[in-house]
Amino acid sequence: MREVLSKAGIGEEASHAAFVGLDEVEGEDGSFNYRGSIPQEKALRPEVILAYEINGEPLPREHGFPLRVVAPGFIGAGSVKWLSGVTLRDVPSDNPCQAREYKLFPPGVTAETVDYSEGLMLGELQVDAAICEPEEGEALDAGPVSMRGYAVAGGGRSVEWVDVSSDGGRTWVHADLQEGAGEFWAWSLWEAHLEIGSGEHRIVARALDSSAGTQPVTAEEVWNFKGYANNSWHGVGMNVR
Amino acid sequence: MREVLSKAGIGEEASHAAFVGLDEVEGEDGSFNYRGSIPQEKALRPEVILAYEINGEPLPREHGFPLRVVAPGFIGAGSVKWLSGVTLRDVPSDNPCQAREYKLFPPGVTAETVDYSEGLMLGELQVDAAICEPEEGEALDAGPVSMRGYAVAGGGRSVEWVDVSSDGGRTWVHADLQEGAGEFWAWSLWEAHLEIGSGEHRIVARALDSSAGTQPVTAEEVWNFKGYANNSWHGVGMNVR
């Protein structure tokens, strides 16, 4: 990415790297190509790449063949697929997807009162964690229960640790992060072991990132009418015999 | 700062800028100079400066005369005062203050079980907001109440908005940010207006940063035995007549 941007002319004035995709979006005034931008500072970081292969094979069509952007730690909208152009500009993309749709609004704003010229253009992600095992509603025997999942950080930050709780966050057990977790901007896989008695339980997981950022307890705390940026604790209910 | 680091030899291997202060810390094995480091990537950002003046006057002694580091968005320990040396190194400072004291531990760790070789070395701050007016316990008349305070973001992030609530976070009123809020890495001053009836009330404030990061509801959620990195909602109780 850095090499391509150098040819496009990195400068102090050009502060956003903008990408054009070959896919067309149907808008109110006709169709247009999907476009999106990320800050130049982010685009020049080593984790941001132009990808033409995945695991040694050409990119599949659905992943953006023949070329796509991969901008980890940023909303997916910045990782433009079916790339046909890269430019540098002094303001973020004015594509309706970015300038209007992917925006966060304060909790007091509703679909009826929204002013789309306001709001925060979504960019860096917040830290998040998910439980993959056990699954919701799984029937388990009382005793040791193994949990597995992944965690991912946003911006240029890394996942530092993951904690799990079976009592709603009163006490926490530290998960083991897989060695090399989070390298190459992949998911950080984790595993934790809890001792659980019989009855109905809800287990939750949360991660902490390298800026000491963690996750909100409930989705209500981060409510916004478009439903974006909800990284509240992931919980799984289970029935222990 | 960038100019000084260039002379020290910025390289790919040297990834931390380390600072020596003239102040001495009393340790178990005698006294030592205070030292601390910040990542080279942070040190090269334009907001990180070497300060010898404040508001046109030489730095006061208590602020680090004759020279200090100012590293906004980072824990204060990185803004080393009474500076006597700058070096580049490939690992963070091993000064006991940084390598042992200013560390965050998971909620399950206590003063009795802590292993100081573990834990997260504190660095980037999280977003935070404080209410300055009204003051705790202030007696007010029912009707419109004006609130004032400040907010500050961490890392390279900015304060996007501040919301206030008088019903424990069920509904929120958007605060006005002072024009130019957050420029030059200063506090973002804000003002909000609530209509409050008579009785006991607790008003809270919270900020949102440019990575869509916000604040935890309670200190319990981010409990750690050293008491660090608590950016939970600031609340003020008041008695409205």
Describe the structure in your own words.
The structure is a homodimer of 241-residue chains. With 241 residues, chain A is mostly beta strands. The first copy, chain A, folds into two domains: 2-101, Sulfite Oxidase, Chain A, domain 2; 128-240, Immunoglobulin-like (Sandwich), CATH 2.60.40. Chain A contains three helices and 18 strands. Chain A has helices at residues 2-8, 40-43, 96-101, and strands at 16-27, 30-39, 49-51, 53-54, 57-58, 68-70, 83-89, 103-104, 120-121, 128-133, 139-140, 143-152, 159-165, 173-174, 176-177, 188-196, 199-209, 234-240. In chain A, the strands form six sheets. Chain A has a five-stranded mixed β-sheet, with no helix packed on it. A four-stranded antiparallel β-sheet of chain A has the order 10-12-16-15, with no helix packed on it. Chain A has a three-stranded antiparallel β-sheet with strand order 2-1-7. In chain A, a hairpin with a 7-residue loop joins β13 and β14 (173-174). In chain A, 39% of the residues are buried. The model of chain A has no long low-confidence stretch (mean pLDDT 93). At the A-B interface, β13 and β14 of A face β13 and β14 of B.
